[in-house]
């Protein structure tokens, strides 16, 4: 497959001027991002790489980080994890309090905010230094020791993160949070502030495209079964309450973030990351979703 030709065609066809999305404004630092940014990077299992645009520029990965923390929590708790968080699509906004109340403090899945905060609670309980160990994990799977948090973004998130505090407090009242609130939300704001490029994200998600093993060394990071479950959750829950639309249009497991990034994988084939900060009303990159729809259309195959 001549991936570079396909990416070049996508870059030629799509433009930020053709979409109506807006940058995330509820996090002050994200509101300052240049809306014209657009990049894409593909990493295949035969080590072929293709890219265009702003693919090497750092973006705030936001909820894409939830795949990394879920992976770490699954390695620690295994199947016991699902006693505290469910695996169903939400169908509601990613920061819904109403759904959490209805379901008595058990989040629908680990990719909505409440579910990710339960995952943070688990990691705070089981790791000596969760922020340092998350960095160590991401640096290992990318092979890049320089990946770091954007501390300005983390502080910006904390300054407006009242709803996330509310989610943790409500779950604590119902017995599904074990630690003090502050270290949980502090870890959560930092994980969302991870700064990575499309190139680095595509490399990181090769772990999930390669059945839980690092492509370059063959080291197994997670079991095939756990990898299968993570990919299934990305397919059904990776795009907030627009997961069905992404499956319908693109047909790949993936995860989005309100920084405008999207990563998707084809198991056994490739990982592909795209970035455009302009978000649709559901909080997903409008241009990014269009680019990935064109990608699976032009390549002629998805997982279906």
TrEMBL record:
Gene Ontology terms: biological process: glutamate biosynthetic process; L-glutamine catabolic process
Residues holding substrate: 63, 113, 157, 164, 188, 240, 258
Keywords for the protein's UniProt record, in alphabetical order: Acetylation, Hydrolase
An MF annotation (GO) of this entry: glutaminase activity
Annotated SUPFAM superfamilies: beta-lactamase/transpeptidase-like
EC numbers on record: 3.5.1.2
Gene3D superfamilies per the UniProt record, alphabetical: DD-peptidase/beta-lactamase superfamily (3.40.710.10)
Record's catalysed reaction(s): L-glutamine + H2O = L-glutamate + NH4(+)
HAMAP family named in the record: Glutaminase
NCBIfam families, A to Z: Gln_ase (TIGR03814), PRK00971.1-1 (NF002132), PRK00971.1-2 (NF002133)
Family recorded in the similarity comment: Belongs to the glutaminase family.
Subunit text: Homotetramer.
Protein name: Glutaminase
Organism field: Gillisia limnaea (strain DSM 15749 / LMG 21470 / R-8282)
């Amino acid at each position: 497959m001549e991936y570079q030709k396909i990416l070049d065609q996508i870059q030629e066809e799509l433009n930020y001027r053709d979409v109506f999305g807006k940058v995330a404004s509820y996090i002050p630092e994200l509101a300052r991002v240049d809306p014209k940014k657009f990049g894409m990077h593909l990493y295949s299992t035969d080590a072929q790489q293709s890219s265009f645009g702003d693919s090497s520029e750092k973006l705030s990965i936001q909820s894409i980080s939830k795949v990394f923390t879920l992976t770490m929590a699954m390695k620690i708790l295994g199947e016991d994890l699902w006693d505290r968080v469910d695996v169903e699509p939400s169908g509601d906004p990613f920061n819904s309090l109403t759904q959490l109340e209805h379901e008595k403090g058990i989040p629908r899945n680990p990719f909505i905010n409440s579910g990710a905060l339960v995952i943070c609670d688990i990691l705070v309980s089981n790791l000596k230094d969760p922020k340092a160990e998350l960095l160590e994990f991401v640096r290992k799977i990318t092979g890049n020791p320089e990946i770091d948090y954007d501390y300005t973004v983390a502080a910006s998130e904390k300054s407006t993160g009242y709803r996330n505090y509310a989610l943790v407090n409500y779950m604590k009242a119902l017995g599904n949070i074990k630690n003090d609130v502050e270290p949980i939300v502090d870890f959560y704001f930092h994980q969302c502030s991870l700064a990575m490029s499309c190139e680095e994200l595509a490399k990181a998600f090769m772990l999930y495209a390669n059945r839980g093993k690092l492509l370059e060394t063959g080291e197994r990071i997670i079991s095939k079964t756990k990898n299968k479950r993570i990919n299934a959750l990305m397919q059904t829950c990776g795009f907030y309450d627009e997961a069905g639309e992404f499956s319908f249009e693109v047909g790949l497991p993936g995860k989005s973030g309100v920084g405008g990034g999207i990563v998707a994988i084809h198991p056994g084939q490739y990982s592909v990351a795209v970035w455009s900060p302009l978000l649709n009303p559901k909080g997903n990159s409008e241009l990014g979703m269009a680019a990935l729809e064109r990608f699976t259309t032009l390549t002629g195959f998805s997982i279906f």
